[in-house]
Amino acid sequence: MQPVLFSLLVLLAAGPQLQAAAASSDPTARLEAAARSNDVAAAQQAIQDGADVNAQGGGGQTPIMAATLSGSTDIVRFLLDEHSSRVDTSIGEKDGYTPMHGAGFQGRADIARLLIAAGLNPSDRHRDGFTPIHRACWGRQQRHTDTVRVLLEDGKVDVNELANGNTPLDSALGSGNEATVALIRSKGGRTAGDIAMDREL
């Protein structure tokens, strides 16, 4: 799936909607609002009031997915540290994308590191064929480069992982992010074409 389509993942609540959810009598709605606004105190209160930590709200996103896409690092840390036995990080949003994919696509390096430390697979392959590192390579900003660096840190991600005929380097070249291209090349990353040529020799 191309980045423009994957961006439909990101349900950015308008200010008034977020304020209404935060003031709701429904603790699960308040937890979702807290996840999007990185408000740990509000999230803690919502959970104490009975919020479902795995409820799928807007876009089918669980609180940890909403927090990941919104860049709410404190909320992700809070959910993983204090509610790890209850939070199900394998639940995808409406199109099946999990927090690890969200961290890659949105370029959330700190969150990617937290998710990996919690045991999530940084090489998780979505049914569309792509992995988190390919999604991070689509991004054009420094935060995407930082996320690629995190994904490659522990050695679990193959820098030449193929997805729909593309390596991470192919994806980075396509995005035009020169910093990501340089990083991947420094780690031994190659294009699918170069790898195929070597196999023919």
From TrEMBL:
ANK repeats lie at residues 95-127. It comes from the Eukaryota. Residues 1-20 form the signal peptide. InterPro entries: Ankyrin_rpt, Ankyrin_rpt-contain_sf. Keywords: ANK repeat, Repeat, Signal. SMART domains: ANK. Pfam families: Ank, Ank_2. PROSITE patterns: ANK_REP_REGION, ANK_REPEAT. This is Uncharacterized protein. It comes from Tetradesmus obliquus (Green alga).
